[in-house]
Amino acid sequence: MISTIVWGTGNFGRAAIRAVDAHPRLELAAVLVHDPGRSGRDAGDLGGLGRALGVRSSDDVAAVLATGPRAVVYAASGDIRSAEVVADICAALRVGAIVVTPSIYPLYDHRDDRHELREEIRAAIADGAGSLFVTCVDADWTNEMVPLLLGGLGAGVDRIHCQEIVDYSGFDQPDSVRYLAGMGEPLDYLAPMIAPRMPTTVWGGQVRLMARALGVELDEIRETLERRPLEASIETDAMGKFDAGGQGALRLQVQGIVGGEPRIVIEHVNRIDPTCAPDWPSPPDGQSAAQRVIVEGEAQIAMIAVSAAPAGGDEAMSVGRLVGAIDWLAGQAPGLYDALDVPLRPTGAPELADASA
């Protein structure tokens, strides 16, 4: 069994606890929390499992890492604390751990040598013989291997278009929704998510990775942005009032340009009210979020995935990819890995195996 730590207990971390517990070749050894008030709680409680796991959470990073975990699922957010995230991950790498995470956006495509932090990570790997796999950035599991798998079904690929369409009105994440994405804020407020070059920092690696897999050379990466105001004030159950005139919807694209045309596109369409920007793409009726992948070529192939819950569905899919990679990485040499390096593999389900025996 591979001794595994889950670091962080937000939406992603809760899903990670459940995934590690369910994996037949992993053993949950510890859960690290930032808030001392969460220290000492059973992991089953933190993960929403409805049963005790006998593993208590801790806020003592040094003590937990000193136990020498074989793997770490780093689930803490990197949205506004990138330096701290890199320091945390380097500490885990220096004790020889395999680290899987969505939290270092620039390393989605680690072969891009424009990011200085890559050398800091490489130094930590050299010191401790750990490994790092970064993927499913921002829970975008459909931007990872899904477009390439769909593209493999056709005779040729002319264009790949990935969309995430989200209605934030049922979320309970006011800091991310109001201040990171700018929902409800005046249109002259420049939210971090949409600041110039920030979309490329977050999603550009996914565009470059798809281009590399397809064997095409990018001319450049472009960004486009549209915003719409709320026409009337709205009240949400979880986050309170959003005033008329504030940002009600945003639509951004990160475009990989090939031959002067946008051939690889990652698009986000986000709203705080489902009636805002009705001419833009929307989730299917009754749903709060959807992921759509369209591959155009000699044949057109489309896939849509729906998250039934306001938050957490996409995290569970992304966590599955990361946690499912740990036992494969345990058999590989130390180093940096990306989504093209790590194969898609079923983790197995012991209860199904028992039933078929």
From TrEMBL:
InterPro entries: DAP_DH_C (IPR045760), NAD(P)-bd_dom_sf (IPR036291)
Domain of life: Bacteria
Start and end residues of each 2,4-diaminopentanoate dehydrogenase C-terminal domain: 206-344
SUPFAM superfamilies per UniProt: NAD(P)-binding Rossmann-fold domains (SSF51735)
Cited Gene3D superfamilies: NAD(P)-binding Rossmann-like Domain
Protein name: Dihydrodipicolinate reductase
Provenance organism: Rhodococcus oryzae
